[in-house]
């Protein structure tokens, strides 16, 4: 256990440095000092692509008692922390509007809305060209409503394509406004912690003052510009204004705070970082770096919302570290493919591909379990950081080969500050749309909403999940 | 032409928007499995922007290639001004890096760490995809701090516009800083409100932190300022020239457009002086400036940037290959092949005949030791040198560059579908729909063990459902089968001789059968469709948007100039600066 109780932080802020290495970190002063024993609730979205092998994902459960269950192969790595996990089985991810299965799945997953018409044709004969999602995702709604104004969310990813489109982005601040995930863990670390590497609190205070001066002027420049622009230009530049406004809030609210630091791999040479990040085989290392950094950031209350995007929809990472040999080509509809994740998912009825896909999804369960245990290792207000979080694992598809979206496989780790029940498998038999889960998550975070996403796709919160 | 029009009809009905292979669908992934990452992640958003097929197939678009140059002056339909749209554009990562290097001497390329720019039509400078995310804005703030600190430390005198506070006084140097560095960054003199806001920051800084820090903070503001990051064309004194609200750009706006188009950076002092002095007010003046700029070394940046994106090779450095199958593969070779294409294009423009036909069919290129080995020619004594590839009879122009072949291949094999699609979309401007996963299962199970790549893909065309799209790509792509997944020449695959016969369609008079990419390249070199497409691609790159009907006069003018000059690409670029689309804009009702 890493004791990182918030009271410790406060002692640190009072001038007593605890543990090494220690950093000064900016957090919202109101939240940091006013109510040290409060339980900040946190939402973490966790994405893996291309569907799962549902038969090995679905736990064996006693219908009469959802707390009596056994995980099958894929979720077995969660067994050691199953008391804090809820498997949400059988939700129906509604489909509609433009785009193909992957496009819709990725766009709908966390937003519960249809895609906008756009300029990208998916892989389907009779569907129209699609654009980005037509509304915000649940993480950003929560970040905006109850997140920290200083850092509403941290969004990271690994193996996410540089090309921005509805396949490669999952989180949206608003309609047509996808969020870019940070893929460079060292840059993420620097962004979150760098100022604080300086133990000189006076110097930090001076730096903050300078930043406030600069951001005031920058904000003013955008405010005076936007009314002069035509409508389309204005819409784009207003997003810039919004982001500067968030930065403004961050610099104006900041006070120093003390945190413990995650230990990272040695940083590669700057010139090598891009190679490192793009290299297929570095996915495990990159994921661990991101998980460690985000776990500490959440424990430190630097943010209350985080998203992890591991690869993207139709991502074709080759899981060489699971013994999948890139030379063992697979026949996908007559096309010889390297055995990447997406290629395999198209032939998930074939035994060897199926075995690989089980391995891949099980490996992701191991990573997810690792992260849950990281959060669980931080004590907080009588429980752990995990207890006050909801870490939601979702996929844009249910089954890769069929490109089906139901039953959508979801797993929740943590009890969201006692608002969600854990240690169970809840089964819906496709009777409830997944928007209901998004609504439940928003409500569990304290957002007062009665519907989420497309109204026709939302029937109300999932009472079975809630305490 | 007939083929193109027919395709256009197909696209409208969607009857053929199906395909039976994951070849394209599975492309957008990382480097190990992607053709190289470039064809994968770069391809998809660019496949068929609005109007792509239609505009190319527009009668007259390519039909007037041999006719006298048409332009606003002598085409009756073009008598009125047709500037098209001019959305506000944001500096790309690359442009940001160039500007901080040119203006502040900062060579750290901070833009590398920014999130990717939005892409459309195959170019990642699309105005309507340039919305920033929070991450981008945070990165811009971090970069502004670092760049400003370095600038004051290393380039203090340059930042202050050559002014020395010890001699000329601190106040004078503030004025010099705002007047010179400010003008470079904002690409025009600062407006009064802008200057007031910056002086307020400087006053605070001088009082609280000292002189240099004050300048540094003001520089931070400038580097995050919309007048720096966005190419704003809001000249307050602009007057509409007609009832449609068409406005002639100011000299500073023209200088900015010229500079980003031809140099991938902001205008320098000389160009800004020309703007100030009214020397960019006429089309003739702009032509003279453009011609001079294309002889400047900074034009190399644009050439690299355009060809990287147009040829879909910018990610080739990160391509991963099966090293057992391709022993020549190394990270260094990937970097070298990228460099080859850049050097070739630069040599063509700066030392060569600048002709489109040479771009396609040159029997020379630039090689280093690794590439010389790959191409079977004598290695240079050191570094890169021009090499005569003619004797090998294996190479002709960009199409056979190892960079292009590797970018359109996979981890362990060639990719005829990607190569065919590349020729169709990027060289002939005909978009091909992405495959339909619902028909992916139509393909019969066959054992690939003893089949060549070609034999394997030929199975596609046997199924009529698949053939609809694949016959547009595969017969072109098969002609490249002599080039393996790292672009090396091969004559056998799986102990069978390579069959490099192909068939070109969609390229007008040069349509027909051919053998090998050298013959294909020579055919394309004289294709009117290619010439027409080339103008479209440069237009898209230069305008940050797809062409619309409003642009047909501008585009036809550029096409005609390219044709009339015998395919001189420099003339094409100059011609683009002479169009309504370049010299004018339409006000869209925003209050100035």
List the helices and strands and how they pair.
The complex is a heterodimer of chains A (467) and B (592).
Chain A: H1 6-13, E1 22-24, E2 27-28, H2 29-34, E3 42-47, H3 54-57, E4 60-62, E5 65-70, E6 85-91, H4 101-108, E7 115-120, E8 130-133, H5 138-146, E9 154-158, E10 172-174, E11 177-178, H6 185-193, H7 201-225, H8 231-253, E12 254-255, E13 258-260, H9 270-278, H10 283-299, E14 305-310, E15 330-332, E16 335-337, H11 341-346, H12 351-376, E17 379-380, E18 383-384, E19 389-394, E20 408-413, E21 424-427, H13 435-444
Helix pairs in contact in A: 5-13, 6-10, 7-8, 10-12
Chain B: H1 2-13, H2 22-25, H3 38-43, H4 52-56, E1 89-90, H5 93-104, H6 134-154, H7 156-159, H8 165-168, H9 170-186, H10 192-208, H11 211-224, H12 226-229, E2 230-231, E3 246-248, H13 251-263, H14 269-276, H15 283-293, H16 299-310, H17 331-350, H18 356-361, E4 364-367, H19 369-375, E5 385-388, H20 402-407, H21 416-427, H22 453-462, H23 464-477, E6 492-493, E7 496-497, E8 501-504, E9 512-515, H24 516-525, H25 528-543, H26 552-564, H27 569-576, H28 580-583, E10 584-586
Describe the protein:
- The complex is a heterodimer of chains A (467) and B (592).
- With 467 residues, chain A is an alpha+beta fold.
- Chain A has 13 helices and 21 strands.
- Chain A has helices at residues 6-13, 29-34, 54-57, 101-108, 138-146, 185-193, 201-225, 231-253, 270-278, 283-299, 341-346, 351-376, 435-444, and strands at 22-24, 27-28, 42-47, 60-62, 65-70, 85-91, 115-120, 130-133, 154-158, 172-174, 177-178, 254-255, 258-260, 305-310, 330-332, 335-337, 379-380, 383-384, 389-394, 408-413, 424-427.
- Chain A starts with 5 loop residues before the first helix and ends in a 23-residue tail after the last helix.
- Residues 1-37 of chain A have low confidence and may be disordered.
- Chain B is mainly alpha-helical.
- Chain B is 49% helix and 5% strand.
- Classes of the chains: A alpha+beta (467), B mainly alpha (592).
């Amino acid at each position: 256990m890493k004791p990182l109780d918030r009271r410790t932080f406060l002692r640190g802020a009072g001038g007593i440095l605890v543990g090494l290495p220690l950093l000064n970190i900016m957090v919202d002063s109101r939240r940091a000092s006013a109510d040290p024993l409060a339980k900040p609730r946190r939402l973490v979205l966790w994405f893996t692509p291309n569907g799962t092998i549902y038969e090995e994902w679905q736990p064996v459960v006693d219908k009469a008692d959802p707390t009596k269950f056994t995980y099958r192969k894929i979720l077995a790595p969660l067994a050691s922390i199953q008391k804090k996990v809820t498997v949400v089985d059988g939700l129906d991810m509604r489909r509609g509007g433009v785009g193909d299965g992957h496009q819709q799945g990725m766009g709908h997953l966390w937003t519960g809305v249809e895609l906008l018409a756009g300029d990208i044709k998916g892989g389907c004969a009779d569907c129209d060209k699609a654009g980005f999602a037509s509304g915000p995702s649940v993480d950003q709604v929560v970040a905006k409503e109850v997140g920290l104004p200083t850092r509403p969310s941290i969004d990271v990813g690994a193996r996410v394509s540089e090309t921005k489109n509805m396949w490669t982005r999952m989180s949206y601040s608003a309609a047509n406004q996808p969020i870019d995930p940070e893929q460079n863990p060292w840059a993420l670390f620097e962004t979150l912690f760098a100022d604080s590497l300086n133990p000189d609190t006076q110097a930090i205070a001076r730096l903050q003052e300078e930043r406030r001066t600069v951001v005031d002027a920058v904000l003013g420049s955008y405010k005076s510009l936007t009314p002069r622009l035509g409508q389309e230009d204005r819409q784009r530049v207003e997003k810039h204004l919004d982001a500067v406004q968030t930065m403004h809030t961050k610099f104006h609210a900041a006070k120093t705070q003390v945190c413990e630091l995650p230990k990272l791999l040695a940083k590669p040479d700057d010139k090598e970082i891009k190679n490192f990040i793009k290299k297929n085989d570095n996915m495990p290392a990159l994921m661990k770096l991101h998980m460690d950094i985000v776990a500490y950031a959440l424990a430190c209350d630097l943010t209350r919302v985080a998203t992890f995007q591991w690869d993207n929809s139709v991502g074709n990472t080759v899981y060489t570290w699971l013994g999948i040999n890139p030379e063992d080509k697979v026949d996908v509809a007559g096309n010889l493919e390297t055995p990447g994740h997406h290629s395999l998912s198209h032939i998930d009825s074939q035994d060897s591909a199926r075995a690989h896909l089980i391995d891949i999804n099980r490996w992701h369960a191991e990573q997810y379990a690792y992260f849950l245990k990281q959060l669980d290792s931080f004590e907080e207000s009588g429980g752990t950081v995990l207890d006050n979080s909801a870490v939601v694992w979702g996929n844009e598809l249910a089954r890769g080969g069929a490109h089906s979206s139901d039953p959508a496989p979801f797993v929740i780790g943590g009890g969201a500050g006692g608002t969600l029940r854990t240690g169970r498998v809840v089964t819906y038999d496709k009777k409830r749309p997944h928007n209901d889960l998004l609504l439940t998550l928003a409500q569990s975070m304290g957002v007062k909403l009665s519907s989420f996403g497309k109204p026709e796709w939302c029937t109300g919160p999932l009472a079975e999940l809630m305490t | 032409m007939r083929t193109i029009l027919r395709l256009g009809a197909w696209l409208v009905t969607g009857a053929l928007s199906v395909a039976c292979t994951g070849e394209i669908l599975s492309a957008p992934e990382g480097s190990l499995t992607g053709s190289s990452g470039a064809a994968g992640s770069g391809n998809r958003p660019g496949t068929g922007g609005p109007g792509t097929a239609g505009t190319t197939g527009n009668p007259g678009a390519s039909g007037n290639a041999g006719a006298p140059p048409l332009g606003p002056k002598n085409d009756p339909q073009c008598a009125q001004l047709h500037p098209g749209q001019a959305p506000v554009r944001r500096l790309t990562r690359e442009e940001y890096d160039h500007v901080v290097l040119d203006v502040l001497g900062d060579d750290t390329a901070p833009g590398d760490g920014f999130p990717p720019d939005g892409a459309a039509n195959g170019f990642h400078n699309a105005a309507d995809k340039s919305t920033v995310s929070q991450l981008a804005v945070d990165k811009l703030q971090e970069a502004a701090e670092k760049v400003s600190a370095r600038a004051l430390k290393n380039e203090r005198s340059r930042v202050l516009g050559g002014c020395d506070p010890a001699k000329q006084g601190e106040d004078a140097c503030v004025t010099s800083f705002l007047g010179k560095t400010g003008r470079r960054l904002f690409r025009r003199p600062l407006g009064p409100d802008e200057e007031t806001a910056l002086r307020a920051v400087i006053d605070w800084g001088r009082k609280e932190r000292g002189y240099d820090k004050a300048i540094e903070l003001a520089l931070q503001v400038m580097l995050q300022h919309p007048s720096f990051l966005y190419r704003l064309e809001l000249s307050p004194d602009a007057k509409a020239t007609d009832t449609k609200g068409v406005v002639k750009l100011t000299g500073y706006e023209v200088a900015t457009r010229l500079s980003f188009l031809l140099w991938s950076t902001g205008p320098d002092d000389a160009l800004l002086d020309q703007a100030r002095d009214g020397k960019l007010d006429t089309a003739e003046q702009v032509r003279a400036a453009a011609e001079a700029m294309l002889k400047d070394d900074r034009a190399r940046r644009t050439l690299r940037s355009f060809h990287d994106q147009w040829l879909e090779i910018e990610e080739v450095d990160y391509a991963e290959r099966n090293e057992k199958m391709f022993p020549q593969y190394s990270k260094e070779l990937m970097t070298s092949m990228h460099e080859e294409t850049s050097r070739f294009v630069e040599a063509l423009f700066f030392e060569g005949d600048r002709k489109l036909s040479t771009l396609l069919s040159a029997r020379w290129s630039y090689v280093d030791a690794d590439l010389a080995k790959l191409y079977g020619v004598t290695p240079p004594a050191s570094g890169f040198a021009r090499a005569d590839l003619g004797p090998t009879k294996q190479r002709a122009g960009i199409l056979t560059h190892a960079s292009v072949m590797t970018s359109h291949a996979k981890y362990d094999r060639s990719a005829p579908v990607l190569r065919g699609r590349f020729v169709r979309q990027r060289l002939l401007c005909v978009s091909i729909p992405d495959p339909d996963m619902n028909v992916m299962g139509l393909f019969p199970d066959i054992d690939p063990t003893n089949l060549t790549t070609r034999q394997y893909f030929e199975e596609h065309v046997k199924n009529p459902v698949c053939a609809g799209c694949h016959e547009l790509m595969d017969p072109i792509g098969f002609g490249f089968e002599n080039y393996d997944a790292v672009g090396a020449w091969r004559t056998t695959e799986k102990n069978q001789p390579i069959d490099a016969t192909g068939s070109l369609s969609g390229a007008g008079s040069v349509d027909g059968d051919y053998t090998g990419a050298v013959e294909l390249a020579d055919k394309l070199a004289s294709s009117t469709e290619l010439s027409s497409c080339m103008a479209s691609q440069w237009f898209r790159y230069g305008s940050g948007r797809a062409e619309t009907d409003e642009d047909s006069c501008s585009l036809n003018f550029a096409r005609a100039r390219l044709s009339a000059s015998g395919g001189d690409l420099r003339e094409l670029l100059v011609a683009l600066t002479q169009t309504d689309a370049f010299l004018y804009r339409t006000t869209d009702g925003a209050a100035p």
